[in-house]
């Protein structure tokens, strides 16, 4: 029941006293966005005034915005490589941050094929926890009664390594789930998961997923929301159920755990809760054995009120598939975050995916915005535009996000393009438009044009002995199957028809492409099973000319026409697919280890 609190928020009546505090915090912080930003910048610059980085730019202890902006350059990860390298190699001096770097967070964004290493400090965990603590109070405004059930969330840790200097390097969520903030979180009736910590923290992805799915099935009546971080992760769980329901239902029926689960902590946990339940087993079997899996989530977890998954940005491609498996349950995108920094949350989480806007929380970092306005010819402007402060962005305009963090990133370009949709109090709200330079993405992988080009070049070397070359190519992220996979269309020119490349050679070309893609892609293929084998579709000679004719017929200028290196417009896909002469899949997994190359 909603409480009538003196802290009652304009967002709505809070569900409990603790929610009232959280909503009050949101109101306060967004109402004073500019002064909070001032405080954040002052704190960051004061505590780090003696760092090598700020000393180099002669900030001389200044903490005001004007001096900061006039002296510090806007940078990308590449600019910071020397500093990151030194920290990774064990230099513990105050290079970027006065607080010791506690670990590196490995971003899904890559540099030279490897995950970017983001330095972080211990207290950032508190900031992340703070943002997490705001999510349920907001959700409770829209979905009452969530304290009466549980969340079935598929959460996983990934492998971690150490840098030569001994610092841990791992993804931000792995770091969070392994922290005491998560492991020893106090009981919160609004945030009870069906998955035990033992399963979430199990490094073996099969055993982890199996246990989480089994626990979700055993508690199916209590499940009120189903989620994963990204849409692709939830669909992987559905695929897992498709492949494993016979064994899962057998475990439920007999009360004996699948012997493939060997992890002692999981067996110990499951021993306590797994009892023979033939009725439940029959019920799950009845649904899963049907050929038609439409609405399977709502059929098995009948009390589900919404799916909690990110379906903005690249993940929007999964909305139709999620709608299919959930029978059209609402999709809630709750937060916007990265390894560099957690940014903000969606204050209207039950809105349609196309309407999602994230409110950046001004206490998380100091935010600036680089206007993103290519001129009418599509070229960036000659002189760099001025950066705008958080409260000064304009509704309708697009910006690239630039951050200054407590952990020691100063005026750092995140690479995300955001469009302002409105304001909550004085804090702007943003539609996530896209990440810059991403051509293909299935899961957390991000492949850019240069990486694709290099992969095609490397693979096409295998065609030389057949006197064959790739004259044109384009690509497509095919997400109609789970997991999705990259499709590369090739038009070949062979000079010797008696000696054209065989299916075996073209399969090797697929693998060669995979081998040259970045490590996040290869990890998705080799370790996480979140990306399927890459496919080359060879198209008839002249197909790309037809593609150009089609573009010109729709108004493209013949002088400026460039082959699109990625396609997703249905008529173009249909044209390409109707010209396919053969199709070939990668026959093996590309090489990947947690160690950096
Ligand atoms: P990572 O550095 O691997 O943690 O990835 C962070 C990036 O994921 C962000 O910079 C965004 O490009 C993307 N991302 C995170 N949250 C969202 C969201 N809610 N919607 C769309 N993209 C997101």
UniProtKB/TrEMBL annotation:
It comes from the Eukaryota. Belongs to the IAA-amido conjugating enzyme family. InterPro entries: GH3, GH3_C, GH3_M. Residues 451-569 form the GH3 C-terminal domain. The lineage of its organism: Eukaryota, Viridiplantae, Streptophyta, Embryophyta, Tracheophyta. Keywords: Ligase. GO terms for molecular function: acid-amino acid ligase activity. This is Indole-3-acetic acid-amido synthetase GH3.1. Transmembrane segments: none annotated. GO terms for cellular component: cytoplasm. Residues 358-435 form the GH3 middle domain. Pfam families: GH3, GH3_C, GH3_M.
């Amino acid at each position: 029941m909603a409480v009538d609190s003196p802290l009652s928020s304009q967002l709505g009546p809070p569900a409990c006293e603790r929610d009232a505090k959280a909503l009050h915090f949101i109101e306060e912080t967004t109402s004073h966005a500019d002064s909070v930003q001032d405080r954040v910048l002052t704190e960051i610059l004061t505590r780090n005034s003696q760092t090598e980085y700020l000393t180099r730019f002669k900030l001389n202890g200044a903490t005001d915005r004007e001096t900061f902006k006039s002296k510090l350059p806007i940078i990308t990860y590449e600019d910071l490589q020397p500093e990151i390298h030194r920290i990774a190699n064990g230099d513990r001096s105050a290079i970027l941050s006065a607080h010791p770097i506690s670990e590196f967070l490995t971003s899904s964004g890559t540099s030279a094929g490897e995950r970017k290493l983001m330095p972080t400090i211990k207290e950032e965990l508190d900031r992340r926890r703070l943002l997490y603590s705001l999510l349920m109070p907001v959700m409770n405004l829209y979905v009452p009664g969530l304290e009466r059930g549980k969340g079935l969330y598929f959460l996983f840790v990934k492998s971690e390594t150490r840098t030569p200097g001994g610092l841990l390097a791992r993804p931000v969520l792995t770091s969070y789930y392994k922290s005491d903030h998560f492991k020893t979180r106090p009981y919160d009736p609004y945030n009870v998961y069906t998955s035990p910590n033992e399963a979430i923290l199990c490094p073996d992805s099969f055993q982890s997923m199996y246990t989480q799915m089994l626990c979700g099935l055993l508690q199916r009546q209590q499940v009120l929301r189903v989620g994963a971080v990204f849409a692709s992760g939830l669909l992987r769980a559905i695929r897992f159920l498709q492949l494993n329901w016979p064994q899962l239902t057998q475990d439920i029926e007999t009360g004996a755990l699948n012997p493939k689960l060997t992890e002692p902590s999981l067996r110990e946990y499951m021993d306590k809760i797994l009892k023979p339940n033939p009725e439940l087993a029959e019920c799950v079997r009845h649904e899963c054995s049907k050929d038609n899996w439409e609405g399977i989530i709502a059929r098995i977890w009948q009390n589900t009120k919404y799916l909690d998954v990110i379906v903005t940005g690249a993940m929007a491609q999964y909305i139709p598939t999620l709608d299919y498996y959930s029978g059209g349950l609402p999709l809630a995108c709750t937060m916007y975050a990265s390894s560099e920094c957690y940014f903000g949350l969606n204050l209207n989480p039950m809105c349609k995916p196309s309407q999602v806007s994230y409110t950046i929380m001004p206490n998380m970092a100091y935010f600036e915005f680089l206007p993103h306005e290519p001129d009418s010819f599509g070229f960036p402007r000659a002189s760099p535009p001025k950066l705008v402060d958080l409260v000064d962005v304009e509704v309708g305009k697009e910006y690239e996000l630039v951050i200054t963090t407590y952990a020691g990133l100063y005026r750092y370009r995140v690479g995300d393009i955001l469009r302002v949709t409105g304001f909550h109090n004085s804090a702007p709200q943003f539609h996530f438009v896209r990440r810059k330079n991403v051509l293909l993405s299935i899961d957390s992988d991000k492949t850019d044009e240069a990486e694709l080009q290099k992969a095609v070049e490397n693979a096409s070397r295998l065609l030389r002995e057949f006197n064959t070359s790739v004259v044109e190519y384009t690509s497509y992220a095919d997400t109609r199957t789970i997991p999705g996979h990259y499709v590369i269309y090739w038009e070949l020119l062979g000079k010797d028809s008696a000696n054209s490349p065989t299916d075996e050679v073209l399969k090797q070309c697929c693998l060669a492409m995979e081998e040259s893609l970045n490590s996040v892609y290869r990890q998705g293929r080799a370790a996480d099973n979140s990306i399927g084998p890459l496919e080359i579709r060879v198209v008839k000679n002249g197909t790309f000319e037809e593609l150009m004719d089609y573009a010109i017929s729709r108004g493209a200028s013949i002088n400026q026409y460039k082959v699109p290196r990625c396609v997703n417009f249905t008529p173009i896909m249909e044209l390409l697919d109707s010209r396919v002469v053969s199709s070939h899949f990668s026959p093996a997994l590309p090489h990947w280890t947690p160690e950096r190359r």
